[in-house]
Amino acid sequence: MIVPIVAYGDPVLKKKAKNIEKEYPKLDELVNNMWDTMFNASGVGLAAPQIGLPISMFVIDPAPFSEDEELEEEERESLKNMRKVFINPKILKEEGEEWAFNEGCLSIPDVREDVFRKPVISIEYFDEQWVKHTDSFSGLAARVIQHEYDHIEGILFTDKLSSLKKRLIKGKLANISKGKIDVDYKMRFPNMKKGR
Fold it and tell me: Which domain holds residue 58?
């Protein structure tokens, strides 16, 4: 089931998410809803806070990046089959020299900016079957994971921008929080006037 994506300005996006227990109610349904919602919005990742739940969980499927001709064949292949659920994740290490990539976010439509992140990460997490993993990811996969991980830490990609960039996009962000934006997927806006 497709659920609305929470827009910039909603307090849930700034909350540090809580870990969940194995008995979390209707977890399978939640995972399926997150996939449906993410694919419907043409996203490559979605964190639970983005659908209004302050819990430590996100899903990623960076397959669309596998079409990028500039990437090496090996990375393109690995991105094709990387559909994963991360529950209670913990980044253990971020390594390498930071690199910039133009990021966007389903909660902040029509805003894209270069964000610097480290290229290699190690992360511990549970999958949807509650199997524990410790994996390393690099390149775009690592970036998508870092972006979604930030969501469960209450951090948005816009928080990582310079003060000048933040000032330049301030008006756009205010409009998003008021619902003054056209998107082709369901959204929930924090500051919309009733009756609109």
Answer: 5-188
In the predicted model, what is the mean pLDDT of the chain? 94
Task: Tell whether 98 is covered by a domain.
Answer: yes
- Are 62 and 141 in contact by the 8 Å Cβ rule? The answer is yes
Any idea what DSSP says for residue 192? Answer: P
Maximal CA-CA distance, the chain: 51
Count Cα neighbours of 112 within 13 Å in the Cβ-side half-sphere. 6
Q: Which residues are annotated as a binding site for Fe cation?
A: 105, 147, 151
- CATH number of the domain encompassing residue 142: 3.90.45.10
For residue 41, which of 87, 110, 137, 128 has the smallest C-alpha distance?
110
- Binding-site residue ranges: 105, 147, 151
Decide if pLDDT at 196 tops 50: no
Tell me what pLDDT residue 94 has.
Answer: 98
128 is catalytic: no
- Residue 196, domain member (yes or no): no
Classify residue 49: in a domain, yes or no: yes
Q: Which of these is catalytic: 29, 67, 148, 153? A: 148
Residue 180 has pLDDT above 60, yes or no: yes
H helix and E strand count, the chain = 4, 9
Rounded to the nearest 5 degrees, what angle is found at the Cα of 104, between the Cα atoms of 102 and 108?
A: 150
* Predicted pLDDT at 44: 97
Residues 12-47 pLDDT 10s: 999 999 999 999 999 999 999 999 999 999 999 999
